[in-house]
Amino acid sequence: MTVSISGTDGVTFNDSSVQDTAATGFGFKNRIINGAMVIVQRNAGASVSTSGSYPVDRFYVSEGTSATFTSQRSTTAPAGFTNSLLFTVGTGATAGASEQVQIRQAIEGFNIADLGWGTANAKTVTLSFQVRASLTGTYCVFLQDTSATLSYVAEYTISAANTFETKSITIAGPTTGTFDTTNSTGVMIGWDLGSGSNFNATAGTWQSVVSARRTTSQANLIGTSSATFFITGVQLEKGSTATSFDYRPFGTELALCQRYFAKMDNDGSGGDATLGLGMQQSTTGAAINIKYPVKMRAEPTASISSLQVTNLRDFSSNATLSSISPTHDTATISVTHSASGAINLPIYLQITNNTSGFLALSAEL
Questions:
Q1: In the predicted model, is pLDDT for residue 285 greater than 80?
Q2: Does the domain at residues 27-258 carry the CATH identifier 2.60.120.260?
Q3: What is the C-alpha separation between 346 and 363, in angstroms, rounded?
Q4: Cα–Cα dist 106/120, whole Å
Q5: Inter-residue contact 69 to 85 (CB < 8 Å)
Q6: Tens-digit pLDDT profile for residues 177-216
Q7: Torsion angle (degrees, nearest 10) of CA 346, 349, 351, 356
Q8: Domain boundaries, the chain
């Protein structure tokens, strides 16, 4: 269908793409952030082997078995994508009944408020993604409400080993349950990799099952030594049909991620980077103001490593974080240091010729 738009100067524009844009509601079609796995602020793509980590931004890996594993951003990807999230089993071990293994993303309530979930006006959504695994069989994806008391489990099949396959799952919106519509978790979505039997549920229906993750048919990827699982192109959108992946500009995707986690450093260059400016209040203390890259979801927690306080007379004074008084978009950091010089000199929080220094701010769900 071609839509004609007449401008005030009498010129008519014919653009068949307007139909697709209008149908998806202009803008935030994909409710998943970093679905193409391109943003990785925490570890520059290096593998991590810790449960409760974020190998790429917004995607959380949890593993509670005696198996070993690594997870990381990978350049193995299907056509149209440059990256994927890779989960690799080291030594496999079957999960106990109460143990769970998953990749998941918590979606903020503001970003699903228009779906009307938990009301009579609940909208249907479609989840699509590209997946590849060394172990074929039935796998499960799950959704759960804010309180984790209403769950939905869907099965999908990986038919060919070590081959990217496109999956699409349509989910009727739930008319019951509690789905936050502000800045807390609105809905949790995740991919099971072999959780225990306590997380079993029935596929294809919303049900009052606490933290359902899988069905009895779920493949035991975590129990298979050296097994691999790749995922990318993750999209959750309103409607009953999967549409093309919503590629957002890199800067836009980065800013969306920084609402939940921001790492301020010198990009590993080893050069100088000034993170904040303040005043030297005493010979051992300073107050430094930090402006975040974007306004964060909530008041963040901060971690600091290998940073340096510098004043106009002293360029070699190491600093330690004493306390931080954060808001959603700025923070005053109290620093103890060994800088010399008069009180009330301007003072800077810097990374100076250090590839490992950073200030990290986390407001993750």
A1: no
A2: yes
A3: 30
A4: 23
A5: no
A6: 999 999 999 999 999 999 999 999 999 999 998 889 999 9
A7: 160
A8: 27-258, 261-362
Residue 20 CB contacts under 8 Å (≥ 6 apart), including other chains: 243
Question: In 226-319, where does DSSP find H-type helix?
Answer: 250-258
Q: How far apart are CA 152 and CA 150, in angstroms?
A: 7
**Dist CA 19 CA 247 (whole Å):** 18
Tokens representing residue 49 in the block: 């082997």
Query: Measuring CA to CA, how many Å separate 126 from each of 109, 115, 236, 242, 349?
Result: 18, 12, 6, 6, 46
Tokens coding 102? 């998953």
d(CA 179, CA 115): 10
pLDDT computed for residue 330 by the predictor: 82
Q: Which residue has the tokens 């999908």?
A: 156
- Other Cβ atoms within 10 Å of 178 Cβ, number: 13
Cβ neighbors of 248 (< 8 A, separation 6 or more) are 30, 256
Dihedral of the alpha carbons of 291, 295, 298, 302, in degrees to the nearest 10? -30
Provide the pLDDT for residue 273: 72
What is the maximum span of the chain, computed from C-alpha positions, in angstroms?
72
For residue 18, give the H/E element and its range.
Answer: helix 17-23
Distance from C-alpha of 267 to C-alpha of 197, rounded to nearest angstrom? 44
Burial class of residue 49 in the structure, from the number of CB atoms within 10 Å of its CB (0-12 exposed, 13-18 middle, 19+ buried): middle
What pTM value is reported for the model? 0.88
pLDDT per residue as tens digits for the range 71-90: 999 999 999 999 999 999 99
